[in-house]
Amino acid sequence: MTIIIPVRKDVLHHGRIKKYSTSLRLWHWANTIVISGSLLTVLINSTIINERPVSALVKAELKNAGATVSDEQAGSVAHALGDSVWKIHIYFGYILVGLLLFRLALEFFQLADQKFIRKMKSAYRQFQTTKKNRELVKHELTVKAIYALFYILLLVMAVTGLFLAFEDLLAPFKSIRHSVKEVHGFCMYLILAFIFVHLTGVFLAERKDNKGIVSDMINGGGEA
Question: What CA–CA distance (Å, rounded) separates 202 from 210?
Fold first, then answer.
């Protein structure tokens, strides 16, 4: 489990604590809220507003109230409820796309020593050229690779989500809708796995010598 524990110290500048810009911290917490909200809508639609039990509930309650509805009518009500939740899911998706674009722009405009790609390249070069702190650098490089995979997953989720949201405008590609939906759903499970790994790593780090990682992501870090 050690390999998933984030390192608080800046491996490229020994003796320093990692710095996180205000923009990066804003993106991190906004992304956390949006992804959580998006996953929550999926959970609600697959449990609380699952069409079959909701349809049966609507029919039973209306029957108790003295009204009679058909299975199709009760199903329509249940389907409408599900659609209302999916609309919220779509809105979260739009915000997620905006945050992803913001993160890409941030990579170009924030300070050089805080750019993700630059830090990853520097860690790789240091791993290749020196034996000093080699294990620490290797660990940092692995953590960065996991984050890079997360960014790729976000990109795939955004692209496939936009395809599904605008499928009526993409009628010529209707034949691949099912495949796109499968990819979108599979990426969701991978993101859930990342969240679990990330939270586990942070929890373990806070119990060891890296105490303060969470507060650094709030106040910016940078102090030894």
Answer: 9
- Please give the structure tokens belonging to residue 15: 């003796």
- Those residues whose C-beta lies under 8 Å from the C-beta of residue 179, and which sit 6 or more positions away, are none
Please determine, for residue 48, whether its predicted confidence score (pLDDT) is greater than 80.
Answer: yes
In sequence order, which ranges of the chain are alpha helices (DSSP H)?
A: 22-46, 51-64, 71-109, 116-129, 134-165, 177-207, 213-219
pTM confidence score: 0.83
Q: DSSP class of residue 209?
A: T
Q: State the helix-helix crossing angle for 71-109 and 22-46, rounded to 10 degrees.
A: 170
Q: In angstroms, how far is CA 79 from the centroid of its own chain?
A: 27
% of the chain at pLDDT higher than 90: 33
Tokens of 157: 């989720």
What one-character DSSP code corresponds to residue 13? S
* Euclidean distance between CA atoms 52 and 58, whole angstroms: 10
* Rounded distance between C-alpha atoms, residue 55 and residue 107, angstroms: 48
Helix axes 134-165, 116-129, angle to 10 degrees: 150
Instruction: Give the type of residue at 196.
Output: F
